[in-house]
Amino acid sequence: MFHLTFEEELRQRRLFIAPVRNPAIILNVGTGTGYWAFDMARMFPQTRIYMTDIALIQPDLIPVNIHPYLDDANEKWTWAVGSLDFVHLRGLAGCITNWRATFADAWECMRPGAYIEVCDLSLRFGRQGDETHSDDIWARCSQLIREVASSAGRALAIVESDQCELWMREAGFEIVTQRRVQAYVGTWHRAHKESGALLLKILLGIIEDYVTYTHYKAGRPLKEHRAYIKGLRDKLMEHSAGVFTEV
């Protein structure tokens, strides 16, 4: 769902924005279900595409130029120096423990003139027509997520801040371009109903995971937790009109 949402919000269902032309080797980090890599394999049938994740949950039938590997991007990268033409990371905010180290590893493994692209979702929400929304249910959930992530030492604010650009330049990348696109949550925006519905489903899952974590740490009874989650999901859906974020 991340895959479809990002493509829609980046406009024209583009798989990537970097000016990549006939790459020999592509690395898709944190591939998840692998659908981005599969689409790239069809677009570039002569390209060798490596897709990595900490769990291989992809379908058994994959394109012949796809090579899945069980790998943790938070460990030291072992790809050959100067071997990669395009490195793609999507939806990994909160998963990468040290972005500086990740970008440094990527720089070392990329050939001169290669590209790296990072696409992610902001978990800071706004609401059209409301500049403060301090008591908004979406704003409160955003604050909870940030507090939990911060306590775990995970960086989430890589979209709305300039941290990503800073870390890339520190690693050695000279030309760094940021592009922010507004993403609409739910079906209230007429031109983005499909992607908005997908994004709402994604965000409800993310919020539920973080709330579940806090309830588990606090020892909240399971029955009480389930009732709370149901009420929270209903309230978030009820108040999704006008909500937006960024990718």
Automatic annotation (TrEMBL):
Keywords: Methyltransferase, Transferase. SUPFAM superfamilies: S-adenosyl-L-methionine-dependent methyltransferases. It comes from Diplogelasinospora grovesii. GO terms for molecular function: methyltransferase activity. InterPro entries: SAM-dependent_MTases_sf. The keyword Methyltransferase applies. This is S-adenosyl-L-methionine-dependent methyltransferase. PANTHER family: 2-METHOXY-6-POLYPRENYL-1,4-BENZOQUINOL METHYLASE, MITOCHONDRIAL (PTHR43591:SF24), METHYLTRANSFERASE (PTHR43591). One of its GO terms (biological process) is methylation. Belongs to the methyltransferase superfamily. LaeA methyltransferase family.
